[in-house]
User: Which sequence fits this backbone?
């Protein structure tokens, strides 16, 4: 009997840690999840869609208006199909957009339209993470049931030491699998 919740939308945003999304996509795909990568325009500055497309074994979505098939808007179909929305890495920008309900690009629109559980793995400069604006946005999202993993402390790519590093990939994959298992049971 196949009852496993399978469909993961993997959102990738414009952080220096975006290259680690390749490993996350690969790991979840090997665990037989259907991984649909959705990238922001800025994420494409850090990692090519081709890499993520090959590792996830399906075309990457990044343009809200790139509608090739079907009658239903692609972002709504993805939002409905998703068993989990995982955004890794999640920038300060996407955290703010989700907290305020913006929907100006594919990933933000999916986040607003989906009723799947949401897991965010933030990565940013420590001062950005600890800014009251970001902390308030995180609180708003937590109150709505959005789960966070990380960030962790360490040496940041921007040269600072502090909190802001993307949580290790192993932990992110494990947390995603845990949320999918809960969905299976629920
Ligand atoms: C080299 C470089 C690294 C960046 N790294 C991060 C980061 O780790 N986290 C973050 O929140 N923003 C980072 N930014 C800024 C974001 O790319 C910028 O806020 C962008 O608008 C985010 O858009 P998105 O969330 O739609 O992808 C970085 C920018 C540059 C140029």
Assistant:
């Amino acid at each position: 009997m196949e009852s496993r919740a399978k469909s993961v939308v993997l959102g990738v945003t414009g952080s220096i840690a975006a290259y680690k999304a390749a490993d996350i996509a690969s790991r979840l795909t090997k665990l037989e999840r259907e991984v649909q990568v959705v990238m922001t325009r800025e994420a494409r500055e850090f990692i090519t869609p081709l890499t993520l497309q090959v590792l996830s074994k399906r075309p990457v979505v990044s343009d809200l208006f790139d509608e090739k098939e079907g009658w239903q808007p692609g972002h709504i179909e993805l939002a409905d199909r998703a068993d989990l929305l995982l955004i890794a890495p999640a920038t300060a920008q996407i955290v703010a957009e989700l907290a305020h309900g913006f929907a100006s690009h594919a990933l933000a629109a999916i986040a607003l339209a989906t009723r799947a559980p949401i897991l965010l793995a933030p990565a940013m400069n420590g001062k950005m993470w600890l800014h009251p604006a970001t902390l308030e946005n995180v609180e708003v999202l937590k109150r709505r049931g959005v789960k966070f993993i990380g960030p962790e402390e360490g040496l940041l790519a921007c040269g600072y030491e502090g909190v802001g590093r993307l949580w290790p990939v192993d932990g992110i994959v494990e947390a995603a699998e845990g949320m999918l298992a809960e969905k299976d049971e629920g």
The first strand starts at residue 7 and ends at 12.
